[in-house]
Write a structure and sequence with these properties.
The complex is a heterodimer of chains A (395) and B (338).
Chain A lengths: L3 H21 L1 H21 L9 E7 L4 H17 L2 E6 L2 H9 L5 E5 L3 H6 L7 E4 L4 H33 L6 H5 L16 H32 L1 H6 L5 H31 L7 H25 L3 H18 L11 H7 L3 H15 L7 H26 L2
Parallel strand pairs in A: 1-2, 1-3
Antiparallel strand pairs in A: 3-4
Chain B lengths: L3 E12 L2 E12 L3 E5 L6 H8 L7 E6 L2 E2 L4 H7 E4 L11 H11 L4 H14 L15 H13 L5 E5 L7 H16 L3 E6 L2 H7 L2 E6 L2 E6 L1 H9 L3 E8 L4 H8 L4 E6 L4 E7 L3 H11 L4 E5 L6 H9 L3 H7 L18
Parallel strand pairs in B: 3-8, 3-9, 6-7, 7-8
Antiparallel strand pairs in B: 1-2, 1-4, 4-5, 9-10, 11-13, 11-14, 12-13
Helix pairs in contact in B: 3-4, 8-11
The chains are: A mainly alpha (395), B alpha/beta (338).
């Protein structure tokens, strides 16, 4: 029996050798840096940012032309000045506005019907219509959001004026806001300041990139040596096969770590992501994540004889993991059966824990459940993979 | 008393239905150069892989350097060196880095390892290439490094699987010289080859192996005597209008054990009996064959032995495997070969 010390030493030699080979390969070195950059930029920009859109073109058709409607439009402009969420353009008829919508010039149009001013002065509600182009659900939703907040603002202003007027008539001292909005909501967030999609994305992306590096790396690293014949050199030397796995994994982990640091640095520098929690715990989580993935990579190469089929098996497993692991979308937004599948994917737990640690400053206690699952997943897959790997080595 | 370096008992390796090595039994004495001679697919490499603990035997047992193949595989690996058919080297590492990496796996102390690397580079006259990456080397230079890599841990037994395949004559000779030299210092060498000349030039004893079985095993001289003194005659004949009809007719003769076509005109025929030559010549002429020459060399070669014992010609199968596979990276080797 070879002792642990020798196994670890040999692992180190294998790792150092792999890294040296890697360092000499300029293409791979460039890819190491490019991958996190491309992923971050790509996913950061193709997914909706969640922030409100500004300067949405809207049409205004005033069929009333009375004092009430002019005041209303003036207030609309006043409120909108603060947010600049919409740009207004005046049209003379409904048909003209509809043509503009069809041509894609505006997202929708305010239509103020005749008699609007009369209604307002006679104490009736001033009804008007907004015609919205919902062929693009995304912008239609944005427009509706902007509309309701703008209208709320106007209603609020009007109500305040009305309340003050009533109070003056009856000689009462009142706080109009307390009458109009008796209940006030204060939103307090877990993360101070404003957050964006990158806050959600970055932790998950870190662990996903490591997963991709390790999972695709293992079959590649092992079958390359197998096909080149260098594997025989290592296996005919007095070393334990475990050293080969350990060393190769350690080399891949190093690459994964470098990529993680790049992701984190880019996310902080370019996209304003802030770190709330302990980096040390985050990196420990990363290691655990890697541990849970290695087994699958080794399994893939043990089951397939060559690099091509090994890589294929890994890709087959990796894609559902990437999309169901909750890296890009919150799991809660998926249908129930997809959520059920995602429960069996280690990335789900790793990404979740990573997010909690980095964004919420979660301690070990808070992510203990995820850690246990990852360890269990790693132990089970390794228990199956390592004997299979050893057997496949001496076929 | 000489000990046995290798003892093989009924060693068998099956890949599904195909039996690569079939009940092989033999012993190799310490200090011997032992040659496995056979065509590709005869089971030579599989035997070597099993003895190097790289492949599990299906059945049978073997002792290498006194250790059991299954139980003591780790101890065996301490005592062997392997020159495999594919070169065991990393292209992006320098010669010294390659040697250093493998040396560390054998737990050779640092200082001793550096000494050993210098010694070995000197042995193959390649000190000046020590810090050059392997991918700049020519095939011959690579193979020299590949051979000394196997010698690093000073193994008791050196396995060489087709060590001169695809090499230029110069490198081939220098590798053979090194092999003889290390053998003189006491290392047992197990060699596989499909080159008759190599087996003949190097080996103390040769096992002719075909379809996973030993067809003949003796010293090269005894194997050759087997033909010249025995019942078997091997001779060449040139027929200017050679046809398959003629070949088949010769094959059908009782005295003929094997016929091998060497090119469009030349045949090599192995036959037994008192004087088979007359009968064969008569047959050829009956079929309208025009014999230009018949050669019955006094000095038979291992090639003749191979034909006589396996009924096949070595050369045909050897050429089946065209150029050996090289992992061609980068431009043509810039370094010169001496």
């Amino acid at each position: 029996m070879m002792n642990i010390n020798k196994i670890l030493k040999d692992s180190y030699h294998v790792m150092a050798k792999d890294l040296l080979e890697f360092r000499r390969n300029r293409m791979q070195l460039a890819a190491l840096f490019m991958m996190p950059l491309i992923f971050l930029l790509m996913f950061g920009f193709i997914f909706p940012s969640g922030g409100t859109q500004q300067h949405m073109p809207m049409g205004v058709v005033n069929l009333d032309q009375g004092q009430g409607s002019n005041e209303f439009i003036a207030q609309l402009n006043l409120i909108n000045q603060n947010t600049s969420s919409m740009d207004f353009k005046t049209y003379s008829s409904i048909d003209e506005a509809k043509t503009a919508i069809n041509q894609g010039k505006i997202y929708g149009a305010f239509i103020i019907p005749p008699g609007f001013s009369d209604n307002v002065t006679n104490g009736k509600s001033g009804d008007f219509t907004v015609y919205i182009d919902n062929s693009n659900p995304q912008s239609s939703m944005q427009v509706q959001q902007a509309l309701s907040s703008t209208l709320n603002g106007i209603n609020n202003m009007e109500a305040e004026a009305n309340v003050l007027e009533l109070a003056n008539e009856t000689n009462q001292q009142v706080n109009p806001q307390a009458i109009i909005f008796p209940y006030v909501l204060n939103v307090s967030t877990t993360i101070p300041g404003e957050t964006n999609y990158f806050n959600f994305l970055a932790p998950g992306l870190m662990i996903m990139i490591v997963m991709m590096t390790v999972m695709t790396g293992i079959p590649e690293a092992i079958s390359k040596e197998k096909e080149m014949g260098t594997f025989d050199g290592m296996l005919s030397a007095p070393i334990n096969q475990v050293s080969v796995i350990l060393g190769k994994t350690a080399a891949l982990c190093t690459k994964g770590f470098v990529q993680c640091v790049i992701v984190l640095a880019l996310a902080m520098l370019l996209f304003g992501v802030t770190i709330q929690g302990s980096l040390l715990l985050a990196f420990f989580m990363l290691l655990l994540g890697i541990f849970s993935f290695i087994g699958i990579g080794i399994l893939a190469i043990s089951m397939s004889g060559d690099q091509a089929s090994g890589t294929m098996i890994v890709n087959l497993l990796m894609f559902p993991m990437i999309f169901l692991g909750g890296v890009f979308y919150p799991l809660q937004q998926m249908p129930w059966f997809m959520q059920a599948i995602s429960q069996f994917i280690p990335l789900t737990y790793a990404a979740d824990a990573m997010r909690k640690i980095i964004l919420l400053n979660a301690g070990i206690g808070d992510v203990l459940f995820q850690m246990l699952i990852l360890v269990a997943f790693g132990v089970v897959t390794m228990a199956i993979a390592v004997p299979l790997f050893r057997k496949s080595m001496t076929r | 008393m000489t000990k046995n370096a290798i003892e093989i008992n009924n060693l068998t390796k099956k890949f599904k239905d195909f039996t690569a090595v079939d009940n092989l039994s033999l012993t190799v004495k310490e200090g011997e150069i032992f040659g496995f001679l056979g065509p590709n697919g005869a089971g030579k490499s599989t035997t070597i892989r099993m003895l190097c603990t790289l492949a599990q035997p299906t059945s049978g047992s073997a002792k290498v350097a006194g250790y059991d193949l299954i139980k003591d595989s780790a101890k065996i690996r301490q005592n062997i060196g392997l020159v495999a058919e594919k070169m065991i080297m990393y292209d992006r590492l320098t010669a010294a880095e390659n040697l250093r990496f493998f040396g560390k796996l054998y737990s050779i102390p640092k200082q001793r390892l550096e000494e050993r690397i210098n010694e070995l580079l000197q042995l193959v006259d390649m000190q000046e290439w020590r810090n050059t990456q392997i991918n700049k080397f020519s095939t011959g230079m690579k193979q020299r490094i590949n051979v000394i890599r196997a010698l690093l841990p000073e193994p008791k037994i050196l396995f060489m699987d087709e060590p001169t395949l695809g090499l230029d004559p110069q490198t081939t000779f220098s590798i053979r010289d090194i092999t003889r030299e290390i053998n003189k210092e006491g290392m047992t060498v197990i060699l596989t080859t499909h080159a008759m000349a190599e087996a003949e030039a190097l080996s103390d004893r040769v096992a002719i192996i075909d379809h996973g079985k030993i067809a003949a095993l003796d010293t090269p001289q005894n194997l050759k005597n087997m033909i010249s003194q025995g019942d078997t005659t091997v001779f060449s004949t040139k027929i200017s209008n050679l046809s398959s009809k003629i070949i088949n007719k010769i094959k059908s003769l009782n005295t003929v054990t094997a016929v091998a076509q060497q090119d469009d005109y030349n045949l090599k025929i192995s036959a037994h009996g008192e004087n088979p030559l007359n009968e064969i010549i008569d047959t050829i002429r009956e079929e309208g064959g025009n014999i230009t020459s018949v050669t019955n060399s006094k000095e038979s070669t291992l090639e003749d032995v191979f034909l006589a014992v396996t009924g096949k010609q070595m050369r045909d199968q050897a050429t089946e495997k065209a150029a050996p596979i090289h992992h061609g990276h980068g431009p043509a080797p810039k370094a010169r070969v001496r």
